[in-house]
């Protein structure tokens, strides 16, 4: 049985990274193939997200060209055995783990096709900003395959099992606005404005205390997955840890001394 083809020890390929102070912008950079995810690209993402530069506090993930991502590179699928398929899916799970549960909050900026494995990748991010051109699909159903990059867990959590089943059984697609309404993205913006919005959000998130971002990325999803008894206990422990941190104390004091901004709505 062969392991997936790309060499994990090689450098990053098919992604382009731009550093803007504390924010890194990671571009999927295979526009001629609509940023289809071949092994090399998937392992490059895993490698970069597993060891990001120290200065980086938040990441924007986006795609070059007309589409965010066309999903799995179908040319790599043709000659795979059943066992290789299982291992391949597990390799995607490993690759997306450091995106969802790594050190850094990730804002995905979406446009054009966000389909199949592209949607699975977007679902591993913490915030999704969709430009008006975005459309979502899970064409695995019509290609005779199943999702393998974590969608059963992550996409079903975002939109529910019934909607995901519909997307796969019937080929139903969602546009940007509908996708926003059902939970595929938290933001919808006009075409061409996604990157600015994503960078702005990433900068804001980077200003949070590290413990707040840790609690949101690592504790909240686990609490949501546990039963209520364990969930309330975990919440109490996380609350105590966060409150006890110097960063929280400084921010609370600033508010009480009228040095911090009030909550405003628009
Ligand atoms: C590809 C891929 C790909 C494009 N694998 N080569 N994903 C899909 O089923 C989606 C397949 N792609 C499409 O439906 C369309 O390409 C798009 C709607 C995304 C974009 O359309 P368009 O007209 O802009 O581009 P195009 O002309 O279709 O594609 C340009 C090139 O990219 C062309 O190659 P070329 O050599 O002829 O120029 C395409 O073959 C190539 N290309 N998409 C390989 N996906 C872990 S399991 C996850 C399972 C899945 O993700 S299944 C869903 C796969």
Explain what the structure shows.
This protein has 266 residues and is of the alpha/beta class. The protein folds into two domains: 15-206, 2-enoyl-CoA Hydratase, Chain A, domain 1 (Alpha-Beta Complex); 210-256, Lyase 2-enoyl-coa Hydratase, Chain  A, domain 2 (Orthogonal Bundle). Helices cover 46% and strands 15% of the residues. The protein contains ten helices and nine strands. It has helices at 39-50, 82-100, 117-124, 151-159, 161-170, 176-182, 194-206, 210-225, 228-244, 246-256; strands at residues 15-20, 23-28, 58-63, 106-110, 113-115, 127-131, 135-137, 174-175, 187-189. The strands form two sheets. It has a six-stranded mixed beta sheet, with helices on both faces. Strands 5-7-8 form a three-stranded mixed beta sheet. β2 (23-28), α1 (39-50) and β3 (58-63) form a beta-alpha-beta unit. The longest helix has 19 residues, at 82-100. It is globular. It starts with 14 loop residues before the first strand and ends in a 10-residue tail after the last helix. The mean pLDDT is 94. 3-methylmercaptopropionate-CoA (MMPA-CoA) binds next to α2 and β5.
Concise description?
The protein is an alpha/beta fold and 266 residues long. Helix content is 46%, strand content 15%. Strands 1-2-3-4-6-9 form a six-stranded mixed β-sheet, with helices on both faces.
């Amino acid at each position: 049985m062969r392991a997936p083809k790309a060499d994990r020890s090689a450098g990053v390929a098919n992604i382009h990274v731009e550093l803007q102070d504390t924010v890194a912008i990671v571009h999927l950079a295979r526009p001629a193939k609509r940023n289809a995810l071949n092994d090399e690209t998937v392992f490059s993402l895993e490698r970069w997200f597993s060891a990001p530069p120290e200065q980086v506090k938040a990441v924007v993930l986006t795609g070059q060209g007309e589409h965010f991502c066309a999903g799995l590179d179908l040319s790599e699928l043709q000659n795979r055995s059943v066992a290789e398929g299982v291992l391949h899916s597990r390799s995607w799970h490993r690759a997306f783990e450091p995106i969802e549960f790594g050190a850094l909050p990730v804002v995905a900026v979406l446009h054009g096709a966000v389909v199949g494995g592209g949607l699975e990748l977007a679902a591993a991010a913490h915030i999704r900003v969709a430009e008006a051109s975005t459309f979502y699909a899970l064409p695995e159903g019509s290609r005779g395959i199943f999702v393998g990059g974590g969608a059963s867990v992550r996409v079903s959590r975002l939109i529910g099992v019934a909607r995901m089943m519909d997307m796969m059984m019937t080929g139903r697609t969602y546009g940007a606005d509908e996708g926003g309404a059902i939970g595929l993205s938290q933001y919808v913006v006009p075409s061409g404005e996604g990157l600015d919005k994503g960078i702005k959000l990433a900068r804001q998130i980077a200003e949070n205390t590290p413990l707040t971002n840790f609690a949101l990325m690592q504790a909240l999803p686990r609490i949501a997955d546990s039963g209520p008894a364990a969930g309330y206990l975990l919440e109490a422990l996380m609350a105590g840890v966060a409150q006890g941190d110097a960063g929280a104390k400084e921010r609370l004091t600033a508010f009480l001394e009228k040095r911090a901004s009030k909550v405003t709505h628009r």
